[in-house]
Amino acid sequence: MSVAAKGPLGSILFEMRTWLRCMLPYTPYVAPFYPTPDSVISRLLDLTAVKQGDVLFDLGCGDGRVLLAAARRGARGVGFELDPQLAADALQAAREAGLEKLVKVVRADAASADVSEATVIALYLSDHGNSRLLAGVSRTLRPGTRVASFYFPVGLPGWEQKLTHTDRTDGLVVYLYKA
Ligand SMILES: C[S@@+](CC[C@H](N)C(=O)[O-])C[C@H]1O[C@@H](n2cnc3c(N)ncnc32)[C@H](O)[C@@H]1O
C-alpha cells in the first residue's frame, strides 16, 4: 500500500517512523520524509528554469513529486531514495501519470549517486544532509549544474560563493546555487 493510500493517520505514523530512523546512530538517512509543497515545487522549477532537455536529480526523492513535476515540463527526472516504500511509490506515480519514460528511481544512498548527467539538482533534506550528500557526489558534479535547496542552505566550504539567489516567497526559502 502506498504511503498516500494509508490515509491521514497512517501517513503521519509513517512520517514519524522516518523521523525516528534519522536519529539512529550511523544511519544513512539524512532527512525524514516530508514532501515539498506543490507551490514550492513549481517555484523551484521556475527558478531553475527546468525545461525539455534538462535532467533533474532529486537526492532523496520521496514519493517522486518533484520528479513528476519536472517530467511534466518535458525534463528527465532521476531520483535517489533509500526508503523502499517511497521508491516504489515514486515509480508507481510515474507509471500512473504515463511519465515512466522520463522518470527513473534508484533505491540507494544518494551520497553514492553519479550526478554527471544532472543539469539541475533538487534538495530538501537537512543542513547535515546537504553537506553529506553534496560532498558524496562532488566528484561527479559538473560545474554549472543548477542546485536548488528548499529550506536548508548548503553549508559546505566554498558554497557561499556559489549561491546565486535566495528566494523567500511566502517565507518558504529556496536557495539557488551554481556548482
Ligand atoms: C524531506 S524528504 C523530501 C522528499 C522529496 N525530495 C520532496 O521534495 O518532496 C527527504 C527524503 O530523503 C530521503 N533520504 C534521506 N536520506 C537519504 C539518503 N542518504 N539517500 C537517499 N534518500 C534519502 C528520505 O527517505 C526522504 O524521502
Write the topology of this structure.
Elements: H1 7-22, H2 38-47, E1 55-59, H3 65-72, E2 76-80, H4 84-96, E3 103-106, E4 120-123, H5 127-137, E5 146-150, E6 163-167, E7 174-178
Parallel strand pairs: 1-2, 1-4, 2-3, 4-5
Antiparallel strand pairs: 5-7, 6-7
Helix pairs in contact: 2-3
Bound molecules: S-adenosylmethionine (SAM).
Bound molecules: S-adenosylmethionine
Element order, helices and strands? HHEHEHEEHEEE
- The beta-strand count equals 7
Share of residues in strands: 15-25%
Beginning-to-end CA distance, first to last residue: 38 Å
* Count of spatially separate domains: 1
The CATH homologous superfamily is named: Vaccinia Virus protein VP39
Whole-number mean pLDDT: 96
Tertiary shape:
globular
Helix- and strand-based class? alpha/beta
Major sheet: size, sense and barrel closure? 7 strands, mixed
Summarize the structure in words.
This protein is an alpha/beta fold. The chain has one domain (4-178): Rossmann fold (3-Layer(aba) Sandwich). It has helices at 7-22, 38-47, 65-72, 84-96, 127-137, and strands at 55-59, 76-80, 103-106, 120-123, 146-150, 163-167, 174-178. The chain has a seven-stranded mixed beta sheet, with helices on one face. The chain starts with 6 loop residues before the first helix and ends with a strand. The structure holds S-adenosylmethionine. S-adenosylmethionine binds at residues 18, 28-31, 33-36, 58, 60-62, 65-66, 80-83, 86, 109-111, 124-125.
